[in-house]
Protein 1
Amino acid sequence: MAPLVQVSGLRVCARNDEDVDVPIVKGVDFSILPGEVLALIGESGSGKTTIALSLMGYARQGCRIVGGKVQVAGQDVLSLDEKGLAALRGRTVSYIAQSASSAFNPSRTLMDQVVEGAAIHKTMPRAQAEAKAVGLFRALALPDPENIGKRYPHQVSGGQLQRVMAAMAFITDPELVILDEPTTALDVTTQIEVLRAFKDVVRQLGISAVYVSHDLAVVAQMADRIAVLRDGEVRENGVTPQVLHAPAHPYTQSLLAAAAPATRDLGEGPAGASRRAAPLLEVRGLVAGYGAVGKDGLPAKRILNGIDLTIERGATLGVIGESGCGKTTLARVVAGMVPSARGEVLLDGKALPSCEHGRTREQHQRVQFVFQNADTALNPAHTIGAILARPLAFYHGLNGAARRKRVQELLDLVKLPAAVANRLPGELSGGQKQRINLARALAAEPELILCDEITSALDTVVASAILDLLAELRRELKVSYMFISHDINTVRAICDEIVVLYAGNKVEARPREAVSTPPFHPYAHLLISSVPRLQQGWLDSACARGADGLPVLSQPPAEGAELCSFLGRCSQRIDGVCNRLPPPRQPLPNGGNMLCHQSTAALISQQASLNCFEEVA
């Protein structure tokens, strides 16, 4: 069988500030057979996306394809003129980007944008394209496929928008589709739905695909072959089982080692004296949300519902849950960025004012926030030195030589060279920018740092280095963390205690040493069993396990009762109980607690029958 894609000797250069061409892709060779999925894997800057884009004859701003040969479906892509490339892109080769939200026009309906490719390439009339789009919506497991096209981008979730973008790519029946990190920003439960939909459609249509990712566990579910990239070169290229289980190159071995974050040494943890004193942070009965406040004093949209938690001095609390569960809102209330409607936030046993305008400079200094996206958190017009100098002047009154010396100390603390102080954020890698984000928080010399998804956009190698740094800073500086994530493996690697949020409710809490010990709250079990494994076929078996549906309720849920927020999705709900009564909070034998009607014995039995414990061992 002749390859659909043949790449040989591909070279791409980027022009640096000195107007000199620097090679970033260095003589890459690979091929893709019809119907085959090739994964391009490697850490940030390895050339994955640059190589994938070259299959459409495209090079990003500042880059040039300077050599080699790229053939797709018998066409010499690099020799095509603008008209030829326009005919190729979106017709022979389609592209699914990482960020669906930035790929859509907010002023046009989803259907208008999905069928646009068919109109541009004149592949079918509008009515036929719309009918085909509905079929793709159905194949991609989108809700209400007949009507979802009438919505606008902001009216669907991130996972749904990602699948709509796939429909846009598939509408023209391309022979090759490029999936560029399409699930990186999604939480695990949404990710598994999107992966399942992508895999099913690629299989049904017999399309070849290039899957760009830094996540080997995801790649294991999608790819027939894997090409491992580093510094613009292919270090290893083989069938998926061989690369995963018998990697030949040391770099591939290091990627596999970083795929499952190891448990970090967190030091001695909270001292006994600290436990006997007031906790560093205590949250009591916290209710918060957005929108107009009603007569009951509650916001129109409640995001957090009666949250209780504590963080001891020198401890790390992990907060996990899927998108929209209230993780970031919780951190923002603690930081004073969002007001609370009810409840208290106490620091050292003393209540903090609800919002930032009522807090003192000292209170702000003691609690610092590290944002998820370092690109938007750092002012692109200021040097790193100026960014770090500002909190030093604001909180500590440092200036002149003393301030410059402390900037150098902060850079050393986060393992960056002194020369970085003279550079702009745009000149740094994603991992370096996240270290600066952390250094800026450390400049205040806080007691508590709120880390909001700070590793979610980083590749596994860089994310592992950030986790190592956090653990080291905790041991050296005795700083405490609230670590927010949707990744159970990351939280398990760095935290003493883990709290699980669902729809604004704290449904489970447990110590780290019991994170793999059943029973689990049904939602926590869903989170854990949705984490992809480094095993081909895992996605299919996970889908099979979840194919039994939900138990039928004999009565509709009681109106007005504070019922379990997970009721509508729970496979372990008790008819006549869960749909009538609010769930109690009960202790777990491992020292944690959960919000559930089910007994611990029943949960252990039911969850064991699903055969998922092996995934969290």
Protein 2
Amino acid sequence: MSATSTDAAAPPRMSHRQVLEALSGLLLGMFVSMLASTVVSTSLPVIIHDLDGDQAAFTWVVTATLLTTAISTPIWGKLADLTNRKVLYQLAIVIFVVATAAAGFSQSPEMLIACRAVQGIGAGGLAALSQVLMADIISPRERGRYMGLFGGVMALATIGGPLLGGVITDAWGWRWNFFVALPVAVVALILVQTTLHVPARPRKKTTIDIAGIVLLSVAVSLLLIWVTNAGTTTTGAWEDLANNNDWWSLTSVLMVGGALVCAILFVIVELRSAEPLIPLSLFRNRTFTLSVIASIATGIAMFGASVFLSQYMQLARGATPTEAGLMTIPMIGGLLISSIGVGALVTKFGTWKPYLIVGSVLLVAGSYLLSTIHYDTNFFLVSVYMFLLGAGVGMTMQNLVLVVQNTTRPEEIGVASSGVTFFRSLGGTVGVSVMGAALAAKVTQLVGERKEDIQAAIMSLGDKAQYWAEQLQSGSLPKVSAMPEALRTVFESIYGTGISHAFLIGVPFAVLSLVAIVFLPNKPLTTMTTTERLEASEADVATVSVPEAMATLGATGAVPSVSTDSGADADTAADRDDTRAGRGGDRPSR
């Protein structure tokens, strides 16, 4: 088959209207995912307080979702390369929403953590598959403005979610936060079914790397459990300041050692697996490797800020859930403006690296400045710091996936896209766990240092002294906004210092992200969709291989085997695809 005939047989490029119709279901599915998560963020301190949970429970309610999201993301990505992507996306929506609804009936922190873990499995599918499906119908050059839409939807859900969650919590109770996404999910399923039409893919024998899944899950879980529990108290009582779980106790050594052993075994299994969960050959692509490093810092900034800024507003500034949602708008405004604006600029000018560098600089600045806040810091300054962090996330998050898709072989778009998303989620998971552990340890230390102030404040409460003494002894996360003034001031100061200490952890990772982005190869964006690139690769193989085979047959009488690109040099493969774009890929959208 000739290249010309392949171009003639290729389906016409979708118009802007057709693309928007096809993306409507993906956008709404992403909105459901984000809304179901963010609507709970402002009410989480109230939820943990009502369920008698402590700071560790607070951290694990968040971490459980991030952990299963991270682990399931490469699984969804691998399945996307092997089977029907549209059906997988619909399945992810169903899993996510059913688990979210079940979480609304939680009677204990443990039940809530379990439901959130299942929720993360569906979230991993929505995060990975939306990027893969978009690559099927839109070229990287055109994808900038459409990724801006994804950024806008994420910003809308992140702004509206906390506000809606605060109103629902204050008016009807926090359980209704988990049910609000159900009608939206039904609409998303219908839209995906009726508007999203992806090219048919050849059937493949599907094999799942079970050993890789188990080893990765155990390695990450052991690491996170160790980080969450080591160096903190076991009883949770405010008066018990003994360090019962030493960082280097026998338990710590066993857990860290077990995580390292499982990680090494995971690498060995991936090298030998026919269908590896994360093909290690992807790391031969410098763009992929550096994007993964940069994504880790983005994940820490994005997830850490969403979790601990809500705590800061409620525990360090005494805000209600509704007020906390309003107070985080500056960060979401930065995310909204930067993601939509930069996406449009990428599509218009075809350049991406300057925006990523600026975004990573803003990540460094925002992370550092948030590490300086206290309970009485001028809120205008806090708003500026949040805006800078949000703008940095908006400039880097989607564009790192874009540059990886631009240089990856079309046969590996699924695992490559999910790989970047996986490490971003993993970075966020580990980051939230480390920040949560640092916050818990710092709060415990500060409570010990200010024990006399706390006792004096309690004694000044008269007949309410016994009640508040029992509340603090329970070890559950305090509801600072409901505390008497004398006691509230002390705990606002403690939590303000503790949360700023937690933000400091993200600074070195943000600096590492900046270094990685600076060294990213500045490859121009191709104008071909994944489907067109795949057809172009097949046509090139046929064009080159058939004459060679005929020549060999005439000389030896034997037909040689035809080998394809092994993936060792994905950047070069992408260049070949874009060379063909000069013949068929640069045609304008109709």
Protein 3
Amino acid sequence: MPPPEDGDLVVLPPDPVDAGSQRCRLGPSVMEELGLKLGSPLLILLPGGSCLCTAWPRSDLADGYLQFQTTCAAANLVNLSGPSTPQSETPHEGFGVNLTELRLQRAKLKPLTCPRLKRLHVKVLVHSSETQSAQFIQELAKELLTGLYVHEKHLVSVAGAGTQVRFIEVETVNSGSHRAGLVTTETRLDLGSVLTVQKYRQALRRTPSVHLGGVDEVLASLKEMLTVPLHYPGSLKHLGLPCPRGALLVGPPGVGKTQLVRNVVQRVGAALVTLNGPVVVGSRPGESEENLRRAFAQARRAALDGPCVVFIDEIDALCPRRSVSGSALENRIVAQLLTLMDGIDSEESFIIIAATNQPDTLDPALRRPGRFDREVVVGVPTLQQRFRILQCVSRGLPLSSTVDLQTLAEMTTGYVGADLSALCREAALQAILHNAQDGDKEPDGLVGAEHFVRALRLVPPSCLRSSVGVADFQPVRWEQIGGLEDVKLKLKQSIEWPMKFPEALVRMGVRGPRGVLLYGPPGCAKTTLVKAAASASHCSFLALSGAQLYSPYVGDSERTLSQLFRQARACSPSIVFLDEIDSMVGSRGDGGCRSGVQAQVLSVLLNELDGVGYKTTERRAPTKTFQTEGEEKETVREKQMELQERCNKDVMIVAATNRPDTLDSALLRPGRLDHIIYVPPPDPQARLAILQLHTEKIPLNSDVNLMDLAIQTNLFSGADLENLCKEAALLALNEDGMNVSTVQQKHFLKALQRVNPSLTAHQLLQYQHLFSTRLNCS
């Protein structure tokens, strides 16, 4: 083959004479150009990795060709499944890529300065897991490496020596700033671990570790718990401490429990044996217990080659609480698992990790020290954790400059990691569809903020799906509510400000209100005001009415109310809206509680308002995030997010009623429903604003005088005014036909004759009396 004319070097099969060495055959002009002497170390940069060789001239002195041995190369280039001896007849058979007739630029050849190494840390790969002393393997590895140049993160092939050792992986080289060097008899070799080639090959084939955002502290806790018993069992034995046997991960679905286990197992370099309920449970008697024993036997065999982790996913389905009414199969499975966990020897290097989202359904015998020693709670992500997760899941998306991940993290209250991943995927899909509608054949535009807004409507938080109190409402802006400026300001101060600016309240030494009560005549936009406050606060919104609360079953209403607050605490900051609260609870003093159920519901509500009943499994993950190396200092916005997360953890209770006199006085005291706000009927100016708002989309004739209509609509509520506008438009259609273009003043006047106000003067006097009494008491 003639040499290339462009100056590149053609890679040829290695010379059989150089088998078992690190020699690289080059032309004399190339060696002179690179300043190489005989036996000088040379690093060859190849596709996907590098190879460390020593320079030697070619026997034919031909330039333009390159021959080298694959004794020391990057791990991802080595074909561990094929023959690994240097005497292999197939050229470059030890490599995972085909290097035959490969062309390399001369710039890919890097001369290295390799000093004599003082110390290096290695991992030894053996052919089989035959029991041999660590000292013998360490001395053998030192003898095989003496006289060779080695490089960090490279595999050194020593299979030609005919020993049990096949490869030696160089993990670290302690020689200043150098990453390569010469191993001599004076070099100190530290042995890290001994693995079989098969296990090392399986570890390389695993899915690369996925960076998990927002779970740094949980990840560090799991890694610490696994590293000590798996890698340092001798230290625990020397101190006389029992080796931890297991850990239980508790958290709602989608927070990343399974991915967390896989990630930490890969980081500590352990083997993973997974158990699932459908795989374990068998059809014939005794088959389930046999499957469990077989899985533990597999873990014991894997533990002979190194650390091993047995992961039991959804353990609540496999080991439920044993009871008299439980099935015999479930009881036998629980008993078999307990026996196997108790039978683990202290010298066996494997640990059991289980995951569940229903810890209360587990058998209590599993949750004692000696079995599942530690319970790690992975809660719903906090504000800062959602920001970290969004940074991770959107790393591969071409984001537009309009996308603010911090603002998006504030808008995704209650979203878990799986929800945020689905949100980014849906936003990317919306961007593709949007660009495709514009006529692009291959849409490749950026993902903008408007795409995330559309995705937020399609991807709700999974913790709020099919749960109590989920309210699906369109966001309401303050501008969409006409009038009531004083009430809006009070609601902003009571709800929006504590949610969005909690640091200001902390700075002033003031705690935000626990609850707000809106009372006033029907149809005066109490519910709409609460929706506007929830929309402006960017928090979770849960609503409950009397029809959803009460049930014919004993204790079901109290459980429903407790579940609502538990769901709200998991998604905090959140707003719980109790509409028509007078129908849920009454007053105990004057017999207002019409049944014993109402008194019990009132008792549960008071306890929840005071914070009683908070369970340990509802703990949120810590707000402290770890700062990685090279990461810039926190910005002012991130510091504000951290302060907001630390200050704003409560649940805001907002109730509405048109009969405040029927409520119990214990419910209205400060610390429960702190702010009591009267929502009056609209005055003439407010009625004008409401009419202008509801006639924005109605084509009005020039003779329509909204101010005159506002004066004539005394005792009309906001709902009445909306009904008036609809009735006028329908009258225009009935009188002038379907081709009518505008609504005239006469249509509004006729509608006034048909639509009567829902409020009366007597009702207003009663509300004004309550309002004045409240002012005098305050």
Protein 4
Amino acid sequence: MTNLAATGGVPGPGRIGRVAIGDLLKRAATRFPDRTAVTDGARRVTFTELERDANRFANYLVARGLKPGGKISTICNNSVEFVKALFGIHRAGLVWVPVNTMLGPADMDYILDHAEVRFAMIDDNLYGQPERRAALQKHGIDLIAVDLAGTAAAAGLENFNNLLKGRSEIEPEIDIDDRDLAMIIYTSGITSRPKGAMHCHLAVIMAVSRDDGITGQFPLFHCAGHVSLLSYLSVGGRMALMRGFDPVVCMEAIVRDKLTIFVGLSLMYQAILDHPRRKEFDPSGLRTCIYTMAPMGRPLLERAIADLCPNFVLTSGQTEMYPATTMSRAEVQLKRFGSYWGESLIVNETAIMDENGNLLLRGQPGELVHRGPNVMMGYYKDPKATEEARKFGWHHTGDLGVIDEHGEVLFLDRKKDMIKSGGENVASVKIEETLLVHPAVQNAAVVGLPRPQWGEAVSAFVKLKPAVQADEAGILEHCRKHLGGFQVPKFIRILDEMPMTATGKLRKVKLREAFAEHFAKEGA
């Protein structure tokens, strides 16, 4: 409640004017009680069922003694039960701490310890992994299970669906303010230990159409999957839940569930287009395809627009800026190629700043900064990193870019990925774009490796497309044709697999570590 003296005797919004995540489902269920909210293969769940069971779970959590502001984790892959639990957690006023199920036991252990989690829900098949189970038992965390594999009872865990029986379907009376902490979502940990980005209820809202249905292959513990679920359910749309990405499963869901929006990584679109069964499925119901994490190479984008959907847009954001900050426009996708991230979303301001806190004019390069209600509340238990991230009253992304004459953000590079070679600043992203144009290259990463006479040497790592042959000399010659001399890699290595985070981001730090001594060993 806002202090009355500070507002001239006018109280804050309280329950009347709040924006709370749990309320989104309730309002949608009132308007669309019998409409399908989520699908999971052939399983269909209405808004009414989600609303009813979210309240049952919230009442269970209250009865267990969990208090508003308390932490609760989910260690789950996508499922109907996960969705019900998610809304129940928010209804109970608890702080959701999702754990990426693709993290190893050590990182999971760190997150649970750092966030001081004492209660969690886990898929029974994940609990069946000995190292994960040992880490959870060490913490003495109270657990309940989603009984996906039918092993919860044998493991001595309460079954989520069973514990809902007999619970009240009426929402518990919990005071929630839209600025209350709603979730702590840990970053990917690309360069260091994961940091816990704190977000309030107000930060996670974006508008879409009630007639839309969206693919749900992104995990709900990731900000892209989570905000897509909330956004589409809030207006009466629907999501097709999937446990990971499979090209055929995605295509089947698009047709079966009449989906209109596809959200994926560039590599997902590539896998669909290259799949031998692609022509068995009609994607004409798609009205928009969204790609995220990184721009799409020109050949792939042209092919995807021609074959899948005429409207492709790129969104960009960070775990710290929930859920996104910029989006490109479909009508300019075939006019400007490269790392164009589009225009700032209406929910936040976007600017370019120099190192002294001065905002720069269009066309001047600097650090990309944002401000708005979607900025995180801070890093959990890390005031120093929080202060550094919000210098000069803006959120600092660590990305270098310019805003061009059209008002679009052109990404130049991560500050830490800019290569200092022979007195030149070399943008790794420019070289990666060139490598991705090569017909044999599926993925590429460029880093600077230590080299005494150069400072850093431009070094490239590529993964080839399946069943395609190429050699390092041929790829190097391709670079010479399309890049300036100072940009051409001094070292190229073809890898069977790239080091990736669980959410599909390249872990360049692993490449730097693994090949740090390359030039020293070569004597160059």
